[in-house]
Design a protein that fits this description.
The protein folds into 2 domains: about 190 residues, Vaccinia Virus protein VP39 (Rossmann fold, 3-Layer(aba) Sandwich), CATH 3.40.50.150; about 40 residues, no CATH class. The protein contains 11 helices and 7 strands. A 7-stranded mixed β-sheet has the order 3-2-1-4-5-7-6, with helices on both faces. It is globular and about 50 Å long.
Length: about 240
């Protein structure tokens, strides 16, 4: 995650509308997090030690802690403004979260206790990393996991071809316009919606990988049982076991 990506999420206006924008732009978020949690092969009563890479407004961590009520989370994010929203969302659950502000590329310093995490999870965060940085982060993730621990990621991918990516973007734009229903000036038609998304991806330095590359990176990092557990258009739940 570049400094520019981090800065994009440390702006009050961006943070204020983040969850509402996610509902418009990524309506599958709830389903993706649900699938990610269901994949984890642990009893609900177990006391897991987990790490959330990109805790954001706390959405994934909230679902995780509710599902595993005896567990704790180390929540990492580069934006202080996001972390404050996470604390507000989590309320009493925040007592089971250690919040750390920092850049994922320094994950060894942010989470120095190798071999102690049962689960590392992330949502809509790692696509901000360049491929080289993502590869390094994933190798550190594997070092952080206990034997038998899991990494699970709900994130964006890009199509293999320009033609297919263009079609998927058309579907994405149409869906946003429909959900906005004319109530959001940013999403009134295809042209305005397309410009907004292009500027957003540029400002946040989005660098999603193809499905094949995403799964290959997980395998090369040292994870086993790597799979795409859920996929729709440009959104993917993937992961594997140490």
């Amino acid at each position: 995650m570049s400094e520019r990506s981090i800065a994009a999420y440390d702006v009050s206006q961006r943070v204020k509308t983040y969850d509402a924008d996610m509902e418009l732009m990524h309506p599958n978020r709830s389903k993706m997090v649900q699938v990610a949690i269901e994949v984890l092969p642990f009893p609900k009563t177990v006391a897991l030690q987990a790490i959330d890479l990109g805790i954001g407004t706390g959405y994934f961590t909230e679902q995780f802690l509710n599902h595993f009520p005896n567990s704790r989370v180390l929540g990492i994010d580069g934006a202080q403004a996001m972390v404050e929203l996470a604390k507000a969302r989590l309320r009493s659950l925040a007592s089971r979260v250690e919040f750390v502000i920092g850049d994922f590329r320094n994950l060894k310093q942010l989470a120095p206790n190798a071999g102690t995490a049962d689960v590392v999870f992330s949502a809509y965060a790692l696509h901000h990393l360049a491929r080289f940085d993502k590869e390094n982060v994933l190798r550190t993730v594997v070092e952080l996991l206990v034997p038998g621990g899991w990494f699970i990621n709900a994130d964006l991918i890009v199509a293999d071809s320009v033609e297919l990516e263009s079609r998927l973007q058309e579907l994405r734009v149409a869906g946003i316009i429909k959900r906005a229903g004319g109530a959001d000036h940013r999403f009134t038609d295809s042209a305005s919606t397309g410009r907004f998304l292009a500027n957003l991806e540029k400002n946040e330095r989005d660098q999603p990988l193809t499905l094949a590359d995403d799964l290959a990176l997980l395998r090369s990092s040292g994870l086993k049982n790597v799979s795409a557990f859920w996929l729709e258009y440009r959104e993917l739940v993937s992961g594997g076991k140490k």
